[in-house]
Design brief:
Rossmann fold, 10 strands, alpha/beta, eight-stranded mixed β-sheet, about 325 residues, oxidoreductase activity
């Protein structure tokens, strides 16, 4: 079967239409699905084809709004809300137990949630917030529900885990492993914390694929630059303005080198990572504009030794081994 060639301009709906057969009958869990975000757009588009879409968030009211909006557009959609606060390990364990209790299998896990930048903040577990939400919470969630993903593995299907990273990981000259377990407010910057967290996403996809040995395929991706609820968050807006991503008015700066995507274009690469059969032989791949782009990973985010060390450090933080 031949599939279309995707580009910068490809939309999530176009990807879902191309892979409708692959999405049909699949159950997908997506983190960070608040409205006006690419996680919501991913869920909305998948709801047209998938058997079940599990949407998550820490705010029950916002989660209900997302569910309502999808069902209003797609009345037949099978949407299930799940309360999940990735900044709290106890909440992650509770949510994972709920998922494991579902009667349906789970085929795809999409780690889309991200913390807004801003000042240095510790979680209830004394972890830096951006790293907790991007790496440590998702690691624990993946570990706890891995058996449910593995149960869908067959001769014709390999379950997938997708990490929504960012091209901003390239800003760093190296990955600071010590900051993961021992966050230091003196060394922290909002942008640096974001780039660290997004580097961790890429390293996690590489190491998960390696350790799973073909039983789970993991991928990471840069969705593009999209105006989302994170850009509008008051804590992070100033940083984006200072970086020139947003203009002084808080709106996208279209005069610079940044090429902006629509929300529909922004969610497209996530769907490719989750369902494109052409990626089957490329576990751990990094995608940009809907295609493999491993050459665009910064050296610190593709180093196998760093990936293994990050895995081990994260195991120590959650107090649980994650092995296959």
């Amino acid at each position: 079967m031949s599939f279309p060639t995707f580009t910068f301009n490809t939309t999530a709906d176009e990807v879902a239409t191309a892979f409708a057969q692959q999405i049909q009958s699949k159950n997908v869990l997506i983190t960070g699905t608040s409205m006006n975000g690419i996680g919501f757009e991913t869920a909305r588009v998948l709801a047209k084809h998938a058997n079940l879409v599990i949407i998550t968030g820490y705010n029950a009211e916002r989660l209900a709004l997302a569910e309502e909006a999808i069902k209003k557009e797609i009345p037949e959609a099978n949407i299930r809300p799940l309360i999940l606060d990735l900044s709290c390990l106890a909440s992650v364990r509770k949510a994972a137990a709920e998922v494991n209790a579902y009667t349906e299998p789970l085929h795809v896990l999409v780690h889309n949630a991200a913390a807004p930048g801003g000042k240095f903040k510790l979680t209830v577990d004394n972890l830096e917030t951006q790293m907790a939400i991007a790496q440590i919470g998702p690691f624990l969630l993946t570990k706890r529900i891995a058996p449910k993903l593995l149960a869908t593995s067959s001769a014709s299907y390999t379950p997938r885990v997708v990490y929504v990273s960012s091209g901003s990981h390239r800003v760093l000259s190296g990955f600071d492993l010590d900051m993961v377990a021992h966050p230091d407010p003196e060394k922290y910057t909002s942008g640096g914390g974001y780039s660290q967290a997004k580097s961790a996403n890429i390293l996690a996809a590489i190491e998960l694929s390696k350790r799973a040995k073909g039983r789970i395929n993991a991928y990471s991706l840069h969705p593009g630059v999209i105006l989302t609820n994170i850009h509008q968050n008051e804590e992070s807006k100033a940083g984006f303005i200072a970086a020139g991503v947003l203009g002084p008015d808080g709106l996208p700066n279209t005069s610079g080198r940044t090429k902006w995507k629509t929300m529909a274009q922004g969610a497209a690469t996530t769907l490719v990572a989750a369902f494109d059969p052409r990626l089957e032989a490329k576990p751990g791949a990094y995608l940009v504009d809907c295609v493999e782009a491993n050459n665009k990973i910064a050296p610190h985010a593709s180093d196998p030794e760093t990936a293994a060390k990050l895995w081990n450090v994260t195991e120590e933080i959650i107090g649980e081994p994650f092995s296959f």
